[in-house]
């Protein structure tokens, strides 16, 4: 999986950025995501994530991670349309981008301090949590929450990123 990392804060080490890429690729393999998928991770401040949270979720407060799942447009063709293979392959490429994550480094540090674990562990947790969201997992109802939270903990533990 291709992952584009952007650090708008200038405060996330190259090592942590690369570790995030490794962790998310591990998570992608864990849920059997096809190799051709792409996503983006952007590290931001509380002010920036508050604006994103307000604009996309209608919540005017800073949060730890915002996940924007990409849902490609459905393109319909007449039943008698004989699609050339080159066009079929080109259209398949549009389905490769799965979404983007915005992670507040300030919230990550605050939560790491509150939970008593490392900043790296919290950043990894937020990346996996957001990654699962853009792959269709949610925690709005208790049954879904149990599934998602168990899976994210299983991924983090298997990767070796424990509390």
Helix content: 40-55%
Give the biggest beta sheet.
4 strands, mixed
- Segments where pLDDT lies below 50 for 5+ residues? none
Q: Which CATH class is shown? A: Alpha Beta
The percent range for strand residues is 15-25%
Second CATH tier, the architecture = 3-Layer(aba) Sandwich
Count of domain modules: 1
Give the total of beta strands: 4
EC number: 3.1.-.-
Keywords: Cytoplasm, Endonuclease, Hydrolase, Metal-binding, Nuclease, Ribosome biogenesis, rRNA processing, Zinc
GO cellular component, one term: cytoplasm
Function: Single strand-specific metallo-endoribonuclease involved in late-stage 70S ribosome quality control and in maturation of the 3' terminus of the 16S rRNA.
Structure description:
It is globular, with a radius of gyration of 17 Å. The protein contains six helices and four strands. The protein has a four-stranded mixed sheet with strand order 1-2-4-3, with helices on both faces. The chain has 163 residues and is an alpha/beta fold. Helix 4 (105-115) packs across helix 5. Strand 1 (2-7), helix 1 (14-30) and strand 2 form a beta-alpha-beta unit. The chain has a single domain (2-159), classed as Metalloproteases ("zincins"), catalytic domain (Collagenase (Catalytic Domain)).
SSE blueprint:
Layout (H helix, E strand, L loop, with lengths): L1 E6 L6 H17 L7 E7 L1 H12 L7 E5 L15 H9 L3 E8 H11 L3 H16 L7 H18 L4
Parallel strand pairs: 1-2, 2-4
Antiparallel strand pairs: 3-4
Give a nutshell description of this structure.
By secondary structure, the chain is an alpha/beta fold. Helix content is 51%, strand content 16%. The protein has one domain (2-159): 3-Layer(aba) Sandwich (Collagenase (Catalytic Domain)), CATH 3.40.390.30.
